[in-house]
Amino acid sequence: MGRRVCRAVTYGATQCPGHPYGGAVATAFVKTLRDLLSDGAVIDDPPVVAEHAFDASRTTAPVAAVLVRPRSTREVSAVLRAANDAGVPVVPQGARSGLVGAAAAIDGAVLLDLGALDRIVRIDPVDRIAVVQPGVVVADLQRAAAAVGLFYPPDPASAEWASIGGTIATNAGGMRCVKYGVTRDAVRSLEAVLADGEIVRTRAETVKGVAGLDLTSLFVGSEGTLGVITEATLALRPAPGPSRGVSAIFRDAASAFAAANVIASGSRLPSTLEFLDEVALRGIRLVRPELGIPDSAQAWLLAVTDEVIGSAEDLDGFEAAFLAHGAQAATRADDPEQLDHLFAARRALSPALVAVRGGATHGDLAVPRSQLPVLADAVVELRLRLGVEISLAGHVGDGNLHPTVVFDPGDADETARAREAEHELLVLAQRLGGTVAGEHGIGSVKLHAVDGEVPPRIRELQRAVKSVFDPRGILNPGRKL
Ligand SMILES: Cc1cc2nc3c(=O)[nH]c(=O)nc-3n(C[C@H](O)[C@H](O)[C@H](O)COP(=O)(O)OP(=O)(O)OC[C@H]3O[C@@H](n4cnc5c(N)ncnc54)[C@H](O)[C@@H]3O)c2cc1C
Question: What would be an example GO MF term here (predicted)?
């Protein structure tokens, strides 16, 4: 078979330069990889490769050529050098829990599964750092840090399976960002393999360090387009106190937003501040009736503190803010077990939204916190105009909500209106000075919306940076930028 046009791979405005990865070339390339890597590291059995073609977005994936599971940085380097020489695209993969298609297959690509690089190399309590390989599961690092009295703050809801490499490459968030920031804030230094196979380290492991440009930050959130992360030095913190919290229900969303704003703007930050709206609560009543959420509840907030000193005062403050803004009822959890019960409603969110009408889109917007009430009003207008139901739940403490359009997938007209609403929500976030991608990334799913947010000159600079790192455009082409 001759050369095929790289139909799935567009890089920027231009088609990527005809990657020669069809038929015979792919077979020869797989043999090259087998010669370079340890036994069993190269898998071209089509059903196994196909199984690895998706991430959690389940976007339709083309057919990858081969799945590779390197066992060392050197092997990652060998794969990239060979792929670069052959012009074969490479898709780095962590746990494939991503929600935007960033780790899904590209036609004829190498799926580079980093899962076997899963060692916690060291945890250093003096320098308060962890040095880890990319395949380490986030929750495993959290537990290893806790075992020596330390704390790794990044905590996406997928922590039990998402990888350190994937969470760095997406700059993952989660529920603790209101106090501890996003994954970027925990990344000190990275070892990465560049497209041509060269192994580099971005900076020293010191807290302070301003030599040269900050390429560590550039790798964070780059979705595998600039290099493959093979080791990360991560900043740890002293262990926090036990988590305690207060939840409350409100008669309207505006009162809940006002209460949340008072708490998030206060001098003592909660470690978590979450919001559920009326649509979400309706779904939760369906899937978790035993939680007893009353029909009158139109909004719900949960504020958590993990302070070692003063946590009782924090709880008093949260409760006072809730009641001052008309909360119907506030429930206090004085220890982590009780708090777990308060979290139950928030944890039920995804199945609850599906339960409302059978189908649910996936949203991840961020706006300046001051714009949340404006966003909420605009969503009401959108609901009425398009005749769809939209839930607006999420991380109210940092302005990152997950607006979800719920719809009947069996109704073509309603499904079309849901998709239109999904698109309008992206435009709305941008109009309010926000972003279409709070924490889940751009991948391929949201690529169409980037022009609405990133000015043309900045887009141009970003593509120029990409071409310096990856002149042949082999690293996750068609994603992120
Ligand atoms: C139920 C559920 C809950 C979730 N909750 C949250 C949440 O609360 N907050 C949040 O932010 N996200 C959340 N996510 C999304 C997802 O878990 C995150 O995006 C996560 O960071 C992806 O990690 P991963 O290891 O699965 O990476 P993958 O999905 O495998 O890859 C994601 C991106 O990283 C790149 N990549 C992976 N490893 C490397 C590497 N070593 N070097 C270079 N690039 C690499 C891939 O190419 C891809 O671009 C959730 C997902 C699910 C399914």
Answer: FAD binding
Distance CA 291, CA 79 (A): 51
pLDDT of residue 11: 27
Q: Is the pLDDT of residue 20 over 60?
A: no
Q: In 10 A of CB 319, how many CB atoms?
A: 18
- The response to whether residue 98 sits with its C-beta less than 6 Å from ligand 1 reads yes
Residue 93: which of 25, 21, 165 has the closest Cα?
165
Pocket test for ligand 1, best of 67, 97, 141 (most atoms within 8 A of CB): 97
Residue to probe by mutation, ligand 1, list 68, 77, 187, 440, most atoms within 8 Å of CB:
440
At position 38, the amino acid (one-letter code) is S
- Asked if the model's pLDDT at residue 8 lies above 90, the reply is no
Atom of ligand 1 nearest to the CA of 441: 19
pLDDT at 60 over 80: no
Q: Are 354 and 418 in contact (CB under 8 A)?
A: no
26, pLDDT greater than 90: no
Is the beta carbon of 113 within 6 A of some atom in ligand 1? no
Q: Using the predicted structure, report yes or no on whether residue 321 has a pLDDT greater than 90.
A: yes
At residue 19, does pLDDT exceed 60?
no
Confidence band for 17, pLDDT divided at 50, 70 and 90: very low
* Residue 24 confidence (pLDDT) above 80: no
Res 291 pLDDT > 90? yes
- Residue 78 CA to residue 197 CA, distance in Å, equals 6
**CATH T-level assignment (fold) for domain 120-238:** 3.30.465
Which CATH superfamily is 244-431 part of?
Answer: FAD-linked oxidases, C-terminal domain (3.40.462.10)
